[in-house]
Amino acid sequence: KFYYLQTATWERTYRPEWKDMSLLEWAEKVNGDENFLVKKIVGKKLWEEVDLGDLIVAREVVQKTFVVGLMEDMEESVRRFNVVLGIDDVGDERNR
After folding, report:
1. Is 67 helix (H, G, I), strand (E, B) or coil?
2. pTM over 0.85
3. How many other CB atoms are found less than 10 A from the CB of residue 13?
4. DSSP state letters, 3-65
5. Model confidence at 89, in pLDDT bands (50, 70, 90)?
6. pLDDT tens track for 5-35
């Protein structure tokens, strides 16, 4: 959001003034998300507070659930996705 909206002139939420801000400054002064993803992952409402325990649980969920791939190395990314999904990409059609 921070980097994207600095350059996305086609977006109605385009924010050229963010170009001169550091990420830390933006997070402290502008960002109002207040741990949005942590709250979503642990099942809390937006107005509820989160604590270190919630962060630890959310981190564990992300580590066990998400697989990240890189556009710059798509072949390796797809291979890793296949490993996680249990898809053998070298032959056995039953695994596809």
Report:
1. coil
2. no
3. 8
4. THHHH-TTSTT--GGGGGS-HHHHHHHT---SSHHHHHHHT--TTS---HHHHHHHHHHHHHH
5. low
6. 888 899 998 989 989 899 888 888 887 778 8
